[in-house]
Amino acid sequence: MAIGQISPKRLADTIVEQLETMILEGTLQPGERLPAERALAEQFGVSRPSLREAVQRLAAKGLLVSRQGGGHYVAETLGSSFSDPLIGLLENRPDAHRDLLEFRRTLEGDCAYYAAQRATDVDKAKLREAYEALQACYSNSNNQDVQAEGVADARFHLAIAEASHNVILLHTIRGLFNMLKNSVVNNIDGMYSKTAETRNGLLKQHQQLFEAITKGRAEEAREIAGRHIEYVQGVLSEQFESHRRLERSLRRDKLSRS
């Protein structure tokens, strides 16, 4: 059997692999700016020409983009499953909201399960930070900011996905981040109606989910994540029906006065 020579790996190949791993595992996130060339070369312990070659190759693959004013960024569209026009279509359809919640129930249950099994101390610290930011939004009942609450909620669930150490789950959740964020904002706007009971219910569910994950109770974490989405579905369904009943009453009243 003929044995060919083994070609030594080029330094640029190693840098490409390292950067690709960082993107895949979520260390470098879509839209994030790479450190300056000099700083990154020092970090990797490589020459700037080798780094420059690796960056050019990643840009050719569509993983990195250059922006006016300098600097390289991770492509924002990485892992995006939905285009912006489609998101706009789905946002205005109640059935799509239901479908998204059903999808979240399945996806986030698995994320919570694996996060409870695999979260490192670093993951738990990041999850705690996201959890405390969300709780701070809930506790600020005198100055509620629906947009801020939606973003904080989505970031909490994204932190769980990161802690799952499953890159497919992570990038599916991240690819849906804008839709998830918009969904959460719409949910908050539609379901809270600033009732203490609903807010307290959500606060308790997130607390239970956070504790189950950080204490390594995987099956419990999956169950709590599922119950949380079911709770949101139930409240939203009741809100939707109440809104329809009110519209029907108003139409009847208007007709009787005409």
| Cα separation of the termini | 95 Å
Count of helix runs: 11
Order of helices and strands: HHHEEHHHHHHHH
CATH superfamily of the largest domain: GntR ligand-binding domain-like
Total domains: 2
Number of strands: 2
Shape: elongated
Task: Give the low-confidence spans.
Answer: none
CATH class of the largest domain: Mainly Alpha
Strand order of the largest sheet: 1-2
The helix-and-strand class reads mainly alpha
Mean pLDDT: 80
Helix percent band: over 70%
CATH architecture of the largest domain: Up-down Bundle
CATH topology of the largest domain: Four Helix Bundle (Hemerythrin (Met), subunit A)
Kindly provide the radius of gyration, computed on alpha-carbon positions and rounded to a whole number of angstroms.
Answer: 23 Å
How is the biggest beta sheet arranged? 2 strands, antiparallel
Beta-strand content: under 5%
